[in-house]
Predict the structure.
Amino acid sequence: MVLPKYFIKDGGEKKAGERTDPFSWMIDGFSTIANRGADTHYSGSFTACGFTWKLRLQSVLKEGGEKYAGLYLKLDNSASKNSVIKATYKLFIYDQIQGEHIQKEGEDYFHSTSLDGFCCKIALDKFNSPKSGLLVNDCCIFGVDVLEASAFKLDKKRISESLSLNKELTPRIYTWEIKDVSKSKEIVLNSETFDAGGYNWTISLYPNSPTYKDFLGVFLKLDNAAGLAANTSVYVDYSLCLLDQNNARHLKFTVKRLFSSKSTNWGWHEFLRWNDVRDPTRGFLVDDTCIVEASVVVLGVDTIA
């Protein structure tokens, strides 16, 4: 297997407020990282306008049934412990043939719980098309031009609680197919772990278990909740959907919840009566298989002083 090569052009360090040359990131052998299963990839660190940054590539973004590649500017964590960094910048996805680059310009704020800025995205069909010039001979080039950046000190002495909301709210859609549901002797069935908003999640299914007798229980669990500080919660907008495999009359519930080290699971004990799950006219259990779809959006982080 040929490993991808990363080439970094560093514009060099300058004082805050002064312009820095654009940073470009070329990935030679893009199919290697695209096929290895991970969705998130980072450039090396670079300095611009006195701060340290990285580019983050989300190789697969799912939104409205479509797939995109998304490019973000990410602030180095150490620069934001006691400050908010305001930056004005341009993101680029380079067209190597026509020179008609995909770009997005704007300003954003970076701090300890929001290290990523806005997203510059492109549909995967267009990105992979040989006519677009965005992926040529398995090579692609991304870039950023940080125009201005400045720091503002935070005065937290009078703040009792803070809710930091994300600006990019792209849902992560995860589909879980569960076979031999009625034959299972397990009280709870758990999906594989999936990533959403930088956190790890699983779906838990209780199929007519003694815990929730005569019902199907469905829950979303934050897997790495133990790593959260005691005063920190993750604010999440999510839905759990039981798919009707025959009639497309799906059963879906949506809610917003705070997940923390003390509240790792949220869901519905009585998602659907077990008799209705087994009803062959409903389409929820076909060949003893049911399908649950989760849509997860991390809205932000809540911190109590």
Remarks:
- The chain has three helices and 20 strands.
- Confidence is low (pLDDT under 50) at residues 1-17.
- The first strand starts at residue 5 and ends at 9.
- Residues 5-154 form a domain with the Apoptosis, Tumor Necrosis Factor Receptor Associated Protein 2; Chain A fold (CATH 2.60.210.10).
